[in-house]
Automatic annotation (TrEMBL):
A single GO cellular-component term on record: lysosomal membrane
Keywords: Protein transport, Transport
Record organism: Panthera pardus
Domain named AP-5 complex subunit beta-1 N-terminal: residues: 35-104
InterPro entries documented for this protein: AP5B1, AP5B1_barrel, AP5B1_C, AP5B1_middle, AP5B1_N
Protein name (record): AP-5 complex subunit beta-1
Keyword Transport on entry: yes
GO biological processes: endosomal transport; protein transport
Length: 878
C-alpha cells in the first residue's frame, strides 16, 4: 500500500481516538502500527503530521505495541528514523526520543538483552551530557531542548527500573555543575540517588556508595547501566509525590549506615541539589525535596540540617506545592528539623490562609486538610488517633468555624475541625465559657436539620445534613452530651419530613451502636405513634422494617394491624410484609401469627396473600434460629448494598442472568462431507452440571448468514454427550471464526451466561462432494466439470513436494470423499463443491519421487489463494 495522504491519516487517527479497542479489532487495526512507523520516513508528509503520528504512539503505546516483540521492533524503527534525520533543525527529534522510550517501557521490553535498549540508553546518556550533540543530531540551537528531553527519558526509565542509573550518579553530579538544563538534571539525579539508597538499604549493601557518588564519566566497570541493582529494585518504590501520611510505610526499611567518606560525599551531593533548587519550578522543587527527604530519612547518623537554609526560604512561600513539601519534610524529620517556633508559624499561616475570602475552594480545602492532618512534633495520644494540633485552640480557629453559608465541601471540612476541637471542650465548659465549640456545633446541626425539614427543599440540603451527622458521630462517638441532642434532633426531622426515610436507613447502616441504638428506638416511637396513609405510610413501613426488633412488640403489631387496612396496592403490601419478615427474623415468638392470618384472609392480591400464608406456615413449623436462617439473605448471592431492598436476595439472583466463568469446553470434531450444506460437529464437555444449555454463535461481517442456537437439555461431568451439529450457511466460501456464548442454569437455580473461546471454521470445513458420478463415465463427468469452469473462472498450478506414497497418504487422509477418478498412487482427479455455488477441481497426476504437479481450476477466482494455502499446508503436514 502506498503512502497515505494527510486527510487519510486524519480520518484514521480520528477513528482510532474515538474507540481504540474497536479500531484495533477491525481490519485496519493490525496494520496501524506498521503504517505509522513507515510513514515517519515518508517525505510526502509534513513534520506537523509526523508529530501527530508520534503523539498517537505516546498516548496509546499499549494498543500499538501490545507485546515485548512488537515494542522492541517499534523502538528499533524509531531509533533508525532518528538517525536518518538530516542535520538541519527538526521538530521530530524530541518526539522520536520520547516515543522510543515509551515503546520500550510500555511493552516491557527494557532489559539487558534488548538490542533497542542497548542503543537507546547510551544515546540518551550521551545527549544528556552533550557529547553526541553536533554529530548528526541537529544544530546547536537544539542542544538544550534535546538535553532536557534526554533527561526526562532517563528519569522515566529510572522510575520503571529503580536502580538502573545507580552507576551514573557521579556522572550526573558532574553534569549538574556544567552549563545545561538544571531542572531535568536535578530531578534525574535526585531520583537516581533516592532509588540507589533505598535499594541498598533494603538489600543491606555496604560497599560501593562512595565510588558511585564520585564524579566521573563512568564507573570503574565501564558499564554505566546497573542492571543488577535494577533487578533488586523491582519492588516498585512508590509513591513519587509528597504524601506524609504514608511516610512510615514507605520508609519501613532497614537503615543504611554509610561510612564517614560515603556520608561526606552524600552530603555534598544533597547540598549540590539543594543549592540549585531555587532555579526549579514550584512543582519540581516539591518533588526534589520529597525525594531527598525520604532518601536521607533512611540513613543513620545523617541530620537533616542540610534542609535548614531551604526552610528559611520556604516557610514564607505562597505556593501550595511548596507548602505541601514543607509539611512532608516536617512529617519525615519532626523536631530534628522544625522548632516549636517553626511549628507555631506554620499553624498560624495555615489558619490565616484558610480564612482568606478570596481563596479558591480547592485551595481553601487544601489548607483545611493540612490543619486536620498537621504533623506535630510531639503529638499526644496513640499513633493514628485523630486530634487537633495542641497549638490550635478555639481562639485561633474562631474564623474557621463552619457556617450555613459555606460551600458544602468547605462546611464539612470546617465541621471536621470543629469536632476535633469539641474533644478538648470539657474543661473550658466547666470554667463558664459562654460559647464553647460544643454549643456552636449543636446550633449548626440544628440549622442544617431545619433546612433539611423544609417541605419541597432541595435534596442537597438533606444530603448535607446527614453527611454532617455522620461526621459528628465518627468524631464524637464517645461523647453522649453530643449524641443525645443529635438523636432527638434527627427524630424531630423525621417527624417533620418522613420522605427522608431512605437517608435515615442509610445512616443507620453506617453508624455504630453509639448512635444506632438510640436512633432506632426514637424512630420506632415516632413511627408507631403517628400512623399515616399513602406516601407517609410507605415511608413509615420502610423505617419500621429497618428498626423493628423484639422491643415494643405490642405497639409495633398494633401499628401494623391498623396500617393493613390502608395497604390496598401491591407496593404497600410488600412493605408491610417486609416489616413482618424483620419481626420474624428478630425472634419475636408467636406475636405476628394473628396478624399474618388476618392478612392472608383480607388481602385481595394473591401475591400478598401467598407471602402472608408462607410466613405464617414458617412461623408455625420452625424454631427461632431456623426461622431466621430461612428468612435471611441467600448465601448463593452477595448481599445487596441498597437499603431499599429487604427481600430475599436469592429471589433476585434467580431472576437476573449472572456472568460467570465458563465451565464448558467446546471443540470442533471431524468434518462431515455429506448433506446439502457444511455442518460442524461440536464436542461439549462440562466441569460441573449444566441444565438448559443454549449455545449462541455469531460471525463477524456478512460472509455467513446468521447461525441458529444449539440447545442441550442436560450435561454432566464424565457423561459423554452426542456430537452437536451446527449447520453453516456461507454466502461465499471463506474461513472465519465464530464467537460463542453460553446460556445455562446451574444446580443452584441461577441462570448464567459465559463467553467461550472462539471456534475456527477452516476452509476445508466447507468442502462438500458432488453427486455420485455415473458408473463407467467418471472421467467424462470430471472433464465436463473441468471445462465448465472457464472462461469465467480461473486456473492455477503449484508444486507439492510429495512422492507417490506421500501423495497417496494425503489423498486418503484428507481428500478421499471428493475423489472422482483415481489411479493410485500417482494420479487423482478431485472435485469439491463449495457453498453456496462454487466448485474447486484438482488434477494431481504424474507424481514423481521429488513431487507432484497440481492443476487447480475453479469458477470463482477468489477461491484460488485459499486452495493454494490449503494444499501447501497439507503437503507440509504429511
Amino acid at each position: 500500500m502506498g503512502p497515505l495522504s494527510r486527510e487519510t491519516w486524519a480520518q484514521r487517527l480520528g477513528a482510532f481516538r474515538a474507540s481504540p479497542s474497536a479500531f484495533m479489532a477491525g481490519p485496519e487495526g493490525e496494520d496501524l502500527g506498521r503504517d505509522l512507523l513507515s510513514e515517519l520516513r515518508s517525505e510526502k508528509l509534513s513534520e506537523q503530521t509526523k508529530v501527530s503520528l508520534l503523539a498517537l504512539s505516546l498516548e496509546y503505546p499499549a494498543q500499538l505495541w501490545p507485546d515485548a516483540t512488537a515494542a522492541e521492533a517499534a523502538a528499533t524503527s524509531l531509533l533508525d528514523t532518528l538517525v536518518l534525520l538530516p542535520p538541519r533543525p527538526s521538530a521530530l527529534r524530541r518526539p522520536l526520543l520520547l516515543a522510543a522510550t515509551t515503546a520500550l517501557v510500555a511493552g516491557d521490553a527494557l532489559g539487558p538483552t534488548s538490542e533497542a535498549s542497548r542503543r537507546l540508553l547510551p544515546l540518551l546518556l550521551g545527549l544528556a551530557s552533550g557529547r553526541d550533540l553536533g554529530r548528526g543530531f541537529g544544530p546547536a540551537s537544539e542542544q538544550r531542548p534535546l538535553q532536557a528531553t534526554a533527561c526526562e527519558c532517563l528519569r522515566e526509565l529510572e522510575s520503571c527500573k529503580p536502580g538502573l542509573l545507580g552507576g551514573c550518579l557521579g556522572l550526573l553530579r558532574g553534569l549538574l555543575g556544567q552549563e545545561g538544563p538544571v531542572q531535568p538534571l536535578s530531578l534525574l539525579l535526585a531520583l537516581a540517588l533516592r532509588n540507589t539508597l533505598v535499594i541498598r538499604a533494603r538489600a543491606r549493601a555496604r560497599a560501593g556508595l562512595q565510588g558511585l557518588l564520585m564524579a566521573g564519566d563512568t564507573p570503574s566497570g565501564g558499564d554505566p547501566w546497573n542492571w543488577a541493582l535494577a533487578e533488586e529494585g523491582d519492588a516498585r518504590l512508590q509513591p513519587q509525590a509528597p504524601s506524609w501520611p504514608a511516610a512510615e510505610e514507605e520508609c519501613g526499611l532497614a537503615v543504611l549506615e554509610p561510612t564517614p567518606e560515603e556520608a561526606r560525599e552524600l552530603r555534598a551531593a544533597v547540598a549540590q541539589l539543594l543549592d540549585t533548587s531555587y532555579l526549579l519550578t514550584p512543582v519540581a522543587q516539591a518533588q526534589l525535596l520529597w525525594l531527598l527527604g525520604w532518601a536521607l530519612r533512611g540513613l543513620r547518623g545523617q541530620t537533616p540540617v542540610l534542609f535548614k537554609p531551604q526552610l528559611v526560604r520556604l516557610l514564607g512561600t505562597a505556593q501550595l506545592t511548596l507548602l505541601h513539601a514543607v509539611l512532608a519534610l516536617k512529617a519525615a524529620f519532626g523536631e530534628a528539623l522544625f522548632t516549636a517556633q517553626d511549628e507555631a508559624l506554620l499553624l498560624r499561616r495555615l489558619t490565616v490562609a484558610a480564612q482568606h475570602p478570596a481563596l479558591p475552594l480547592p485551595a481553601h480545602l487544601f489548607h483545611l486538610h493540612c490543619l486536620l492532618s498537621f504533623p506535630e512534633n510531639w503529638p499526644l495520644g496513640p499513633t493514628g488517633e485523630e486530634a487537633a494540633p495542641l497549638l490550635l485552640g478555639p481562639r485561633l480557629c474562631r474564623g474557621l468555624l463552619p457556617s450555613l453559608l459555606h460551600d458544602p465541601m468547605a462546611l464539612l471540612a470546617r465541621l471536621h475541625l470543629l469536632c476535633l476541637l469539641c474533644v478538648e471542650d470539657e474543661e473550658k465548659e466547666e470554667k463558664g465559657q459562654d460559647r464553647s465549640p460544643r454549643h456552636y456545633l449543636e446550633e449548626l446541626l440544628a440549622g442544617l436539620r431545619q433546612r433539611a425539614a423544609l417541605d419541597g427543599g432541595p435534596r442537597a440540603s438533606a444530603t448535607l445534613c446527614f453527611q454532617a451527622s455522620y461526621l459528628v458521630v465518627q468524631c464524637l462517638a464517645t461523647q453522649p452530651t453530643v449524641l443525645t441532642p443529635l438523636t432527638h434532633g434527627l427524630a424531630r426531622l423525621y417527624r417533620a419530613r418522613p420522605v427522608l426515610a431512605p437517608h435515615f436507613v442509610d445512616l443507620l447502616d453506617r453508624v455504630g451502636p453509639e448512635l444506632g441504638e438510640p436512633l432506632r428506638v426514637a424512630l420506632r416511637q415516632e413511627v408507631v405513634s403517628r400512623p399515616g396513609r399513602d406516601e407517609a405510610l410507605r415511608r413509615h413501613l420502610q423505617i419500621l422494617a429497618r428498626v423493628a426488633d423484639g422491643n415494643a412488640q405490642s405497639a409495633t403489631l398494633g401499628f401494623l394491624g391498623a396500617a393493613a387496612a390502608h395497604c390496598t396496592d401491591w407496593g404497600l403490601q410488600q412493605a408491610l410484609l417486609r416489616v413482618c419478615r424483620a419481626l420474624l427474623r428478630a425472634g419475636v415468638g408467636g406475636g405476628p401469627a394473628d396478624l399474618l392470618q388476618a392478612l392472608a384472609r383480607q388481602w385481595e392480591d394473591p401475591d400478598g396473600r401467598d407471602h402472608a400464608r408462607l410466613y405464617y406456615i414458617l412461623l408455625a413449623h420452625l424454631a427461632g434460629p431456623k426461622l431466621a436462617v430461612a428468612l435471611g439473605p441467600s448465601p448463593a448471592a452477595p448481599a445487596s448494598a441498597s437499603s431499599l431492598v429487604a427481600e430475599n436476595q436469592g429471589f433476585a439472583a434467580v431472576l437476573v442472568v449472572q456472568e460467570a466463568p465458563a465451565p464448558i469446553r467446546l471443540s470442533v470434531g471431524p468434518r462431515r462431507a455429506a448433506g446439502p450444506g457444511p455442518v460442524l460437529q461440536l464436542h461439549v464437555e462440562v466441569l460441573e452440571p449444566a441444565y438448559s444449555l443454549e449455545l449462541r454463535f455469531r460471525v463477524e461481517g456478512q460472509v455467513y448468514a446468521p447461525l441458529g442456537a444449539v440447545h442441550v437439555p442436560c450435561l454432566c461431568p464424565g457423561r459423554p454427550c452426542r456430537p452437536l451439529l451446527l449447520p453453516l450457511q456461507p454466502r461465499r466460501p471463506a474461513p472465519t471464526r465464530l464467537d460463542v456464548r453460553a446460556l445455562y442454569t446451574t444446580p443452584t437455580g441461577l441462570t448464567c451466561h459465559a463467553r467461550l473461546p472462539p471456534l475456527p471454521v477452516n476452509f476445508a470445513d466447507l468442502f462438500l462432494p458432488f453427486p455420485q458420478a455415473p458408473e463407467g463415465d467418471k472421467l467424462g463427468f470430471f472433464e465436463e466439470l473441468w471445462d465448465s469452469c472457464l472462461p469465467k473462472g480461473a486456473e492455477s498450478r503449484l508444486w507439492c513436494p510429495l512422492g507417490p506414497r506421500g501423495l497417496e497418504a494425503l489423498v486418503s487422509r484428507h481428500l478421499e470423499p471428493f475423489v472422482v477418478v483415481a489411479q493410485p498412487p500417482t494420479s487423482y482427479h478431485v472435485a469439491i463443491r463449495l457453498p453456496p455455488d462454487s466448485r474447486l477441481l484438482l488434477r494431481l497426476e504424474a507424481a514423481r519421487e521429488d513431487g507432484v504437479p497440481v492443476a487447480l481450476r475453479t469458477d470463482d477466482w477468489a477461491v484460488l489463494p485459499l486452495a493454494g494455502d490449503y494444499l501447501r499446508g497439507l503437503s507440509a503436514a504429511v
